[in-house]
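The material for today's practical consists of a large collection of protein records. There is nothing in a record beyond a sequence line and a structure line. Backbone structure tokens are a discrete shorthand for how the chain folds in space. Nothing more is needed to start thinking about how sequence determines fold. As an example, a complete record with its sequence and its structure tokens follows.
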Amino acid sequence: MNVMTEFKVAVEEDIDLYRQGKPVTNKLKKLPLLTDVLSKNHFQQQFLDHGLLTVLKNWLEPLPDGSLPNLTIHTKILKILNDIDIEHNDRKEQLKNSGIGNVIMLLSKSDEEININRKLAEELVNKWKKIVIMI
């Protein structure tokens, strides 16, 4: 789970860089690793067990000034989230507790987001609503 730690640290380092007025590049540098590891289906469930949804939420959250992080990050993570089988393994509580739905909802309504990403975010919100509402 060293990789998960790397993903978490990238977020923290980017926030520090932002506060110093420097370009935030750590998540972007780690993005190839994130997409590589999560493209392997057999790793996805292990990462979900260790808080992946919260980490991805942190990657997608707006910067302190309200602007969205790098567009490439949104695009890749939205595609990853669309491919991860969350509903199959009863991840309802993780989905609710992570808060990622709120960030995805924000992306689905943001004028800063490109149309294809807004549409994908909206599809995720609709799919996840069904999971969360199911008893």
